[in-house]
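hey so i finally got around to running the thing on that chain from the lab meeting. sorry it took forever, my laptop kept dying and i had to restart like 3 times. anyway pasting the input first so we r on the same page abt which one it is
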Amino acid sequence: MSENATPKKSRLLFVLIGLLAVMGIVYFALPKSWFEIPDETKQPKAPDPNARIQQTADSKDFKEHLQAGMALAAQGKIPEAEERLKTAARLAPEASIVHHNIGVFYLNTNQPDKADSAFQRELEISPGYGPAHYSRGLTLQARKRYAEAALQMELATQLSPDFPDPYLALATQLSGKRPVETIQKMVDTYLRLGGNNKGMAYYDLSLAYKTVKNYAPAVKYGEMALKEDGNSYLFLRNMGQLYSYTDRTAEADTLLRKALTLTKDPSPVYIEIGMNAQKANKLDDAVAAMKKSLELSPQTGNVHLYLWRIYQRQGNKALAAKEEEAFRTWQKAEIAELTRRQKAAGTHPQPPQNPTHP
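ok and heres what got predicted. didnt touch it at all, straight out
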């Protein structure tokens, strides 16, 4: 393969890493404010919540237990909160607000199966309620059932066209998979309806334009997202990638290194720092970043491929050969594991492709 082809393959791998990272992410975490308060409890008085919890332990009013459960959840007292919410459901099994709040509680505590059951019960009591379909969509997203989630979100937009959140959820899930014009329309609708998560809306647009390599609007919307939240891992990493693609390598390095401090898995970000350094012809820095990535995630054997290429550029034949061997060993193991899984699943194994050459 020619020297001119090498940067193109590296760039393609860089793009794929970014997209895979984004795809693996559930973009919406429900805040505790998503609990719905019964109308009768929306009073200007604000008694001590702990005293109220104690006073209502034996109450027969479901609203009292609902309120107490929400307060306990806000304090992180999860078992106690769950018990109070269940009590509210026993006292008022036909009150849709109870099942809504139970669903929110289970989503917030990473129990999407239970959350979905609660939202389905809410829909049995209040059929056609768009926000409940949106909530079901969130539970399906959390379980990585994305096609079903999209259907629920689309149903929510049809049943409650003035409810903004499903439009953003769809834009987030489908950005990079649907035409840019479709994502633009979803985001525009979300903002027109008063959606307040502008950072994520701009990020979705940036990602959509980045996917089709239209970098001018991708940078514009990415910078707008970062202006909304300068400490968002997603926004920082996105702009680090975009600055690298557009040859603003110094700015890319700054943002990617800031993103490192905001993630539990910095390994893929180190890969991107290495690729950016390689693009800036800072090969020693590129090697250091790739080695750090491999140290953090030894199973990510494709890093050996990147090191192989860098060492070749440096003229270090011995280290290049060592990394080539490591990469091929890893690749053979990956092919063997894929073949094993295909056989176990009863599918016909695909013939292994030739290793990628630098």
